[in-house]
Design brief:
Layout lengths: L2 H14 L2 E2 H10 L22 H4 L2 H16 L6 E6 L5 H13 L1 H6 E6 L3 H13 L6 E4 L11 E8 L8 E6 L2 E10 L2 E7 L12 H4 L7 E4 L1 H13 E13 L14 E5 L2 E3 L9 E4 L1 E2 H9 L4 E7 H6 L3 H9 L5 H14 L1 H7 E8 L6 H4 L1 H4 L5
Parallel strand pairs: 2-3, 2-5, 3-4, 5-10, 10-14
Antiparallel strand pairs: 1-7, 6-7, 6-9, 7-8, 10-16, 11-12, 11-13, 15-16
Helix pairs in contact: 4-5, 9-10, 12-13, 13-14
The protein binds S-adenosylmethionine.
Keywords: Methyltransferase, Transferase
Protein name: SAM-dependent methyltransferase
Organism: Tumebacillus flagellatus
Length: about 375
Amino acid sequence: MNQVVVDALHKQLAEAGKLTFAEFMATALYHPTAGYYNRAEMTIGEGGDFYTSPMVHPIFGACIARQVHQFWVALGKPSPFLVLEMGAGVGQLAVDLLQTVREANQEFWAALTYGIVEQGAQLRERQRERLEARDLLKKVNWYDSLDEVPGAGELVGVVLTNELFDALPVHRLGKSGDGYVEYYVAADGERFVEAEGPLSDPALVELVDEATRAQFADGERFAVCPAAVDVIRAMGNLLLRGFVLTIDYGDLAPDVHFQHKRADGVRGFYYQKLTEPLERPGEQDLTADVDFSLLVRSGESVGLTEVGFTTQMNLLGGNGILQKAHELRNKRFDLMADAEMHRMLTLFLPQSLGDVFKVLIQAKGIQTAGLAERLNALRFKLEE
Ligand SMILES: C[S@@+](CC[C@H](N)C(=O)[O-])C[C@H]1O[C@@H](n2cnc3c(N)ncnc32)[C@H](O)[C@@H]1O
């Protein structure tokens, strides 16, 4: 049991009576010293609760580097050019992206500056260690939040995330008769249990678009993420010219809200197994499918225009993963090469991660007409 988190939640409950699921999730994941992402023991990668794409194979970061390079070219090769990664986990994507650029393109390397926005002190330390081991420390600046990034409104570059939005706190709601209810967290002795009540804020339901709401049947459950609105708006406000690249679980509305029969797409993960979200707070991961339509709509209010929505398969396919796999095929009888090929294809194939992860590209301050046809991630087609 994660006693610090459990005690913190009981204290919050003693004061408030009940917590929104978003409040529960915020403490369970982000309690400053003991939350799932902020405790001393690590959870991502080897022996943890989940692998993220950067941990599967460095080709992931290499392909993102190529896509980011294309963004840079599309913007007219500006210098300095900021790549700002929010929620960098253990820093593997930063390492692989930066190494790829350093090896491949000196002009781009000279223009590039890298920023990491990371809420957790433990994780920031892990990121530093990983980058230092590759002599990349000098290239990176750290910020605790988007508000701290200097030069807001003037920045030229790319803001990118992998599995950030699915880790932001969500409210759990349901359709009930003509109205809506919220599913809170309450205490039953030591246990945490669900408790139904009126909406904590009536505006929450407006985070689901009207057409989708009209399709909700009585008893339908869904999750909404006001934090995602704040984050995408803050990202848009940072940029003068540039792109926002979002890679995550989820889908567009209405599909994202109907993916799980009468459930809301909120999941717990404990050692790579699906679990009940209210169990083991602080010891298990909590995630929720991302409503990409909400990111598109909210982005528009700060000048971000959707350029395209696609899959991880197309992002990686358009940025060279198959050429790399082809090189490995020439070493077919080498067992190490086989294992490596398998990991690369896990990222790419539709029946693996290739389709599960979706990719949204938004742009600001650049002519978007005709842009989608030129971008690698949006042009790729898997040949039959
Ligand atoms: C699921 S992990 C993904 C990590 C990494 N991107 C990867 O793919 O391995 C979510 C990351 O987002 C960070 N995070 C969550 N909320 C954040 C916030 N509001 N500001 C900065 N980082 C945040 C977490 O600390 C963690 O590093």
